[in-house]
UniProtKB/TrEMBL annotation:
PROSITE patterns membership: ADH_ZINC
Protein name per its UniProtKB record: Enoyl reductase (ER) domain-containing protein
SMART domains, alphabetized: PKS_ER
Record-annotated Enoyl reductase (ER) domain positions: 14-333
Keyword Nucleotidyltransferase: no
Listed GO MF terms: alcohol dehydrogenase (NADP+) activity; zinc ion binding
Cofactor(s) annotated in UniProt: Zn(2+)
Region (Disordered): 1-27
UniProt keywords, alphabetically: Metal-binding, Oxidoreductase, Zinc
Family of the protein in this entry: Belongs to the zinc-containing alcohol dehydrogenase family.
Superkingdom: Bacteria
InterPro entries tied to this protein: ADH-like_C (IPR013149), ADH-like_N (IPR013154), ADH_Zn_CS (IPR002328), CAD-like (IPR047109), ER (IPR020843), GroES-like_sf (IPR011032), NAD(P)-bd_dom_sf (IPR036291)
Listed Pfam families: ADH_N, ADH_zinc_N
Lineage of the species this protein comes from: Bacteria, Pseudomonadati, Pseudomonadota, Gammaproteobacteria, Pseudomonadales
Length: 335
């Protein structure tokens, strides 16, 4: 008899998630099967559920790419992972491992990268997930499972961007204090940067300072103007439109405006940027090496996401809270 798993699926664009049962294959020689215990909810999941990314969504669409669980079964060739071990999976769950990008440690750019929950793959809002063991990462003992989950997408994304784009002592701004932003503050502060948190909500000030921000400013024209030329690196984690001219004005010469959120479309004043020789960059998730480094750093330096947990039966409430910007700061589903 074929074994099955039950996931939480959107059956059409934007529809509430409902239980959906599908076959559960035996793991291949290089694969592991994970019994999922927790999975973070990311705005990318909302885009997939709502069909905003075209053919990336395949209905019934099962999302979830901040997956934490325990190894249930291993393939015959898997070494280094054993049943019962706590592990996690991020945005992608496989790649060719032999192309130019894989050899550079940038598996996220592999032309044959296998996304965890898009393009027909069913993700972590489910009882079980099977994937290539090389893209399954052991979770350090110090990290509790609910806190570990958001590190696998949100954490890796901001960690990799900050690791590449900053140096200790730099003045780093984080624009948008949500799932990505509250982790970015912690990583940047622990990297030795001076962190300025920028948010439209004054009520996030106390939390932002506790997480490691030195300064906090609300996003008003007056405060933006008062902070002109104060930052070397501005990480935009917000997904909505902002005062981009004001954001550019915050940067010092040679500064970088880096997008981790995806507030499409964005209009930038290139003349104003040229005047200060600014750089625009983006933050994708990282490679396998970045993931290992991030997990070790988060464990050692106590970078813990602040999470709200939801039982699986309340998954639609969690997604609504995420849609309405009401989660402090990452929703994690208990499967
Ligand atoms: Zn994500
Ligand atoms: Zn490759």
């Amino acid at each position: 008899m074929t074994q099955t798993t039950t996931g939480w699926a959107a059956h059409s664009p934007g529809s509430p998630l409902e239980p959906f049962t599908y076959p559960r294959p035996d793991p291949g020689p290089n694969e592991v099967e994970i019994k999922v215990t927790h999975c973070g909810a990311c705005t990318s999941d909302l885009h997939l559920i709502e069909g905003n990314w075209g053919v990336a969504s395949r209905y019934p669409q099962v999302c979830g790419h901040e997956v934490v669980g325990k190894v249930a079964r291993t393939g015959s060739l898997v070494t280094g992972l054993a049943p019962g071990q706590r592990v996690g999976v991020g945005w992608y769950k496989g790649a060719c491992t032999t192309c130019e990008w894989c050899l550079k440690g940038e598996e996220q750019h592999c032309p044959n990268v296998v996304p965890t929950c898009s393009d027909g793959h069913r993700g972590g809002f489910a009882d079980f997930l099977t994937c290539d063991a090389r893209f399954v990462f052991a979770i350090p003992d110090a990290l509790p499972s609910p806190m570990a989950a958001p590190l696998f997408c949100a954490g890796q994304t901001v960690f990799t961007a900050l690791l590449r784009g900053t140096r200790p002592g730099m003045r780093v701004g984080v624009l948008g204090i949500g799932g990505l932003g509250h982790l970015a503050i912690q990583f940047a502060a622990k990297f030795g940067c001076t962190v300025t948190a920028l948010s439209s909500c004054e009520d996030k000030k106390v939390q932002a300072m506790e997480l490691g921000a030195r300064y906090f400013h609300t996003l008003t024209p007056a405060t933006l103007q008062a902070q002109e030329n104060t930052l070397d690196f501005l990480l935009v984690t917000a997904s909505n439109d902002q005062d981009w001219a004001g954001a550019i004005a915050l940067l010092r010469p040679r500064g970088t405006l880096c997008f981790a959120g995806m507030p499409n479309p964005v209009t930038l004043d290139i003349a104003a940027m040229t005047y200060k020789t600014l750089t625009v960059s983006t933050a994708n998730v990282g490679g396998r090496h970045d993931m290992l480094q991030m997990l070790a750093f988060a464990s050692e330096h106590h970078v813990w996401p602040l999470v709200e947990t939801f039982p699986a039966a309340r998954i639609n409430h969690a997604l609504d809270a995420l849609r309405n910007n009401q989660v402090r700061y990452r929703a994690v589903i208990e499967l």
